[in-house]
Amino acid sequence: MKKKLWFTVTLAITCLLFGCGTVNTVLRDDSVPRRNLSHVKSPCETIPRIYSGISYNICTLRGKPSSPTLWMGAAPELMLVDLVLSGVLDTVVLPYTVYEQIYDGSLDLRK
After folding, report:
1. Is 71 or 98 the better-scoring residue by pLDDT?
2. By CB neighbour count within 10 A (0-12 exposed, 13-18 middle, 19+ buried), where does 65 fall?
3. What tens digit of pLDDT does each residue of 10-23 get?
4. Which of 34, 43, 46, 73 is the most exposed place for a label (fewest CB within 10 A)?
5. What distance in Å separates the CA atoms of residue 23 and residue 98, rounded to the nearest whole number?
């Protein structure tokens, strides 16, 4: 039982430390993903709130990181791990994100 708890806590901390896409788009203010994606010059203009963590990670991978974000940003391998974790977390928060999508629409990155 201790191993499962330790694994869960470690997984949660790792997810938060690497800037989990779901955490950045669901739990934080809309300006955070907007700012983060502008730093990597992502071509994305909007992110749907439903499964927004996965969309955020894909937009991050499509971007062109500037020199300061090369050493601060996550490696593509870690982003792929985060895609899986974001998929799980996006599924958990699906009822909330459906509500947000209906009432607030997609997250606009052009502001």
Report:
1. 98
2. middle
3. 766 665 555 688 88
4. 43
5. 16
